[in-house]
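Customer escalation, tier 2.

The customer says the design service returned an amino acid string that "doesn't look like it belongs to this structure." They asked us to rerun it and document both sides in this ticket. The original structure tokens are below, unchanged.
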């Protein structure tokens, strides 16, 4: 079985697992990135097939010299020997098959996502949700601000490598549809999905602090995790659960790699530290 066939089977299996498997897989793995990688591999297979299409070696089906010496085969008359050469396989055939598979899987994923994610909500429900998110953000920003769910991914998402964005001191922030849907499920359905819910709360609080005027990502991250406790409570969590989720986010923050070092909180982000918003309170964050 060729490498391309194995990878296509693996892609189909993963997409089906993404659709039918646990919700945490859909929340953690952007499917668009998976399709982009798969398309890149298909193009690589195509280029390799085109480059190698003119260098095919026709195997010699006649007895080899060592067999003639050992078993006494008579020399065959080359003029009477008919060699059948298989027709060359088009290098575009495999690419078309792979592209058709990608399109079919993408269509299936879109069909499921449009009926289960943020896009599955009607316009009135989405408007009600963002109004509630905006009210929460306004409390942190200490001024009227608005939250937008970037369905078109013009500002945030897979390409921009960010779950949210805001102009420092501005009055509007954009977050991904996944963040909006996680916040919606908490605020309107009472669903706590662990780290997914915690991440959504932290992103909303983080961007709200940017709107308030704070610029340094590390400081904003620390303030956002502390404010996230109140945000979680306003959206339906009890205080204990909200603190647990923000504590989990704080732990994950300190485990991040060097590629997000500007977001990593400092040693002052602790109970009694310089960035403690409530130093008189023993609870942190």
């Amino acid at each position: 079985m060729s490498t391309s066939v194995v990878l296509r089977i693996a892609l189909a299996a993963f997409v089906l697992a993404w659709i039918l498997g646990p919700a945490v897989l859909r929340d953690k793995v952007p499917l668009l990135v998976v399709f982009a990688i798969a398309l890149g591999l298909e193009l690589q297979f195509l280029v390799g097939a085109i480059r190698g299409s003119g260098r095919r070696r026709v195997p010699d089906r006649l007895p080899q010299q060592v067999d003639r010496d050992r078993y006494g085969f008579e020399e065959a008359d080359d003029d009477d020997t008919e060699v059948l050469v298989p027709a060359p396989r088009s290098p575009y055939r495999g690419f078309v098959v792979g592209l058709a598979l990608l399109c079919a899987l993408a269509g299936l994923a879109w069909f499921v996502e449009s009926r289960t994610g943020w896009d599955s909500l009607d316009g009135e429900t989405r408007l009600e949700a963002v109004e509630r998110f905006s009210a929460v953000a306004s409390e942190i920003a200490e001024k009227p601000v608005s939250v937008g769910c970037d369905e078109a991914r013009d500002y945030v998402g897979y390409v921009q490598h960010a779950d949210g964005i805001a102009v420092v001191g501005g009055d509007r922030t954009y977050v991904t549809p996944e963040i909006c849907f996680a916040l919606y499920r908490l605020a309107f359905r009472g669903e706590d999905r662990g780290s997914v819910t915690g991440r959504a709360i932290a992103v909303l609080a983080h961007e709200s602090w940017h709107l308030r005027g704070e610029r340094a990502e590390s400081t904003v991250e620390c303030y956002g995790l502390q404010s996230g406790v109140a945000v979680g409570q306003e959206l339906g969590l009890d205080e204990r659960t909200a603190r647990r989720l923000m504590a989990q986010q704080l732990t994950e923050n300190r485990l991040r790699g060097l590629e997000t070092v500007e977001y990593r909180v400092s040693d002052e982000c602790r109970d009694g530290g310089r960035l403690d918003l409530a130093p008189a309170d023993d609870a942190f964050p």
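Tier 2 assessment: The sequence is consistent with the input. Residues 61 and 83 are 8 Å apart (CA to CA). The mean pLDDT is 83. Sent an explanation to the customer and offered a walkthrough call.
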